[in-house]
Amino acid sequence: MKSIVILISGRGSNMEAIVQAAIPGARIAAVISNRPNAGGLAFAAAQGIATAVVDHTAYADRAAFDAALAAVINRHAPDLVVLAGFMRVLTPDFVRQYEGRLINIHPSLLPSFTGLHTHQRALEAGVRVHGTTVHFVTAELDCGPIIIQAVVPVMAGDDEAALSARVLAQEHRIFPQAVRWIVEDRVSIDGSVARVAGVREPGVLISP
Ligand code: GAR
């Protein structure tokens, strides 16, 4: 049984999708938020999952926050740490500690649109396709080996709300899929690239 800790900052719909996928061989050991009022905490608690808050505003700097966060994570001895809408930049020391077992979902087709406000920036750039990426976390922000991506069309008349909703629906498909592959020991890292054994097309194309 693989132990998984999920970190959130808000709504937690991606965490919810992973929990509801009920992945064989995986146990969600804890859901941890850096914000006390994160909506997702109530869902996790209602599922009987251990929850914790490590409030970043209580720490002097990133290093102190990351050390406190790691201490809470490590109580659960996780095989995998999942960033599901966790909106804090993590220090290289923290990332190193979980190398190869720390994954993130980012709402764009990386390496395009790293950082924040990805949907608005995609609209402003006039791209015709957009999407979301699950990747291993490395010290550099929104980089790291890509595990799975989903592509969605950008439609005429889209605003940020419409585009983000289209992307979010795909996040809820690909994030549990990535976790499932990892739990099945099918994902390996080959330099800057992740490989998924036995999967010819580790991407999802949604036609309009
Ligand atoms: C998701 O769209 C996720 O891709 C994004 O935050 C949202 C969280 O939604 N993550 C980032 O922007 C990370 N830089 P959720 O709380 O409902 O899962």
TrEMBL record:
Residues engaged in binding (6R)-10-formyltetrahydrofolate: 62, 104
PROSITE patterns, per database record: GART
One Pfam family recorded for the sequence: Formyl_trans_N
Keyword annotations of the record: Purine biosynthesis, Transferase
Gene Ontology molecular-function annotations: phosphoribosylglycinamide formyltransferase activity
Superkingdom field: Bacteria
Pathway(s) annotated for this protein in UniProt: Purine metabolism; IMP biosynthesis via de novo pathway; N(2)-formyl-N(1)-(5-phospho-D-ribosyl)glycinamide from N(1)-(5-phospho-D-ribosyl)glycinamide (10-formyl THF route): step 1/1
Gene3D superfamilies the UniProt entry points to: Formyl transferase, N-terminal domain (3.40.50.170)
Catalytic residue positions: 106
Domain Formyl transferase N-terminal: 3-179
Major enzyme class: transferase
Site positions per UniProt: Raises pKa of active site His: 142
Enzyme Commission numbers on file: 2.1.2.2
Function, in words: Catalyzes the transfer of a formyl group from 10-formyltetrahydrofolate to 5-phospho-ribosyl-glycinamide (GAR), producing 5-phospho-ribosyl-N-formylglycinamide (FGAR) and tetrahydrofolate.
HAMAP family in alphabetical order: PurN
Similarity field: Belongs to the GART family.
Protein's name in the database: Phosphoribosylglycinamide formyltransferase
Gene: purN
